[in-house]
């Protein structure tokens, strides 16, 4: 496989610059970083594709692999969609606050103020469950789901129409029903 070293270096620089830009607080820089990562991914897929050959359905010798081409098209579409979403977020942020910088909220400040002792206490709380637990609900008895009907609930008065008991009509072979309730059916011999 003969891949140009220049493509590999450009791809690595794009990945590095994209990650660096995404770590900023400005949403515009996050957008630029995401676009750089998308282009670096497209270059990676082109590098993985290898040496260009004939069309995939042309013949059986020296054909191109169509999978990286399909993945590249998918990556382009996903990058475009997320870029449009980030542009909408930047526009709305600019409308509301005249800035596109993400500010710290109370949860971020509280997380930054946590000490190592607090981390140890939280780690000790996580180790309470055993390895043999098969569910997240420890010490909770589980049972299969039962479906109750309205008439099974004692506090609800069921004033719905009564069920029709089905019985075949001997003369016509069709079904004729009589309107009886469940209580009447239980009282029959």
Automatic annotation (TrEMBL):
Stretches with biased composition (Basic and acidic residues): 150-162
Q: Where is the composition biased (Acidic residues)?
A: 117-134
Q: Which Pfam families match?
A: Oxidored_q2
Alphabetized UniProt keyword annotations: Cell membrane, Membrane, Transmembrane, Transmembrane helix
Annotated membrane-spanning segments are: 6-23, 30-51, 71-91
Q: How does it sit in the membrane?
A: Multi-pass membrane protein
Q: Per the annotation, which location comes first and is thus the protein's main one? A: membrane
Subcellular location per UniProt equals: Cell membrane
Q: Where is there biased composition of kind Low complexity?
A: 169-180
Source domain of life is Bacteria
A cellular component term (GO) from this record?
Answer: plasma membrane
Record region (Disordered): 113-189
Which family does the UniProt entry place this protein in? Belongs to the CPA3 antiporters (TC 2.A.63) subunit C family.
The name this protein goes by in its record: Na(+)/H(+) antiporter subunit C
* Organism, scientific name: Microbacterium aerolatum
């Amino acid at each position: 496989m003969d891949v140009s070293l220049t493509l590999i270096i450009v791809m690595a620089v794009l990945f590095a610059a994209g990650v660096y830009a995404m770590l900023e607080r400005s949403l515009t820089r996050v957008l630029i970083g995401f676009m750089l990562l998308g282009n670096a991914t497209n270059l990676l897929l082109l590098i993985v594709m290898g040496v260009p050959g004939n069309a995939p359905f042309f013949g059986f010798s020296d054909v191109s692999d169509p999978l990286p081409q399909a993945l590249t098209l998918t990556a382009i579409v996903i990058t475009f969609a997320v870029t449009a979403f980030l542009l909408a977020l930047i526009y709305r942020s600019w409308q509301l606050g005249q800035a596109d910088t993400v500010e710290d909220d109370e949860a971020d400040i509280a997380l930054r103020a946590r000490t190592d002792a607090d981390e140890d206490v939280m780690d000790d709380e996580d180790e309470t469950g055993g390895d043999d637990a098969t569910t997240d609900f420890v010490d909770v008895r589980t049972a299969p789901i039962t479906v109750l009907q309205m008439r099974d609930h004692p506090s609800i008065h069921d004033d719905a129409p009564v069920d029709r008991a089905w019985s075949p009509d001997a003369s016509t072979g069709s079904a004729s029903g009589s309107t009886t309730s469940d209580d009447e059916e239980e009282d029959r011999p």
